[in-house]
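Troubleshooting: if your tokenizer reports a length mismatch, compare your output against this known-good record of 190 residues.
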Amino acid sequence: MSTTEQNVYGMLAEFEDAGALLRAARKVREAGYSNFDAHSPFPIHGMDEAMGEQRSPLGWIVGIMGLIGGGGALLMQWWTSAVNYPVIVGGKPFFSLPAFIPITFELTILLAAFGAVFGMLYLNRLPKLFHPNFFSNRFERVTDGGFFMSIEASDPQFEVDRTRSYLESLGSTGVEVIPASETEGSGEEQ
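Known-good structure output:
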């Protein structure tokens, strides 16, 4: 890696619309790039498949947390009602399942919701309050009509000149080098 490539975070390319970005993502993955991301103002159907993304483990996290919540609620109620402090109330058995359903349901939902929120934050490596793509003035458009693809310099296939020409060949409307730090400038536009 040359000294100029050491000062580079990656490459940012802008595309005209969602279809162009989707086609470019598919071609970038087929070309062997693995450390890239697509940025758009809305979700693009098929982008996960185009980028070769695996199915998210978030469903498993939510399911397991829900089971822990429901099982923990039943165990807690059984322990307090039948083992720790058994009291006969109206001739009912110590472990009366219908009476325990509301708390079991609520703790199942509560822990599943916590699993969803904190699992999503962990899997998405959030909160991430800053990203080197913010050095680009063009990238401000990503929230209201811009379609971008970024390839990080840490990708094994990344070489500044070769990656720039490849992104240009995919039909991008502009390619920009993203510096590794703000002191490097606001990127080289072309």
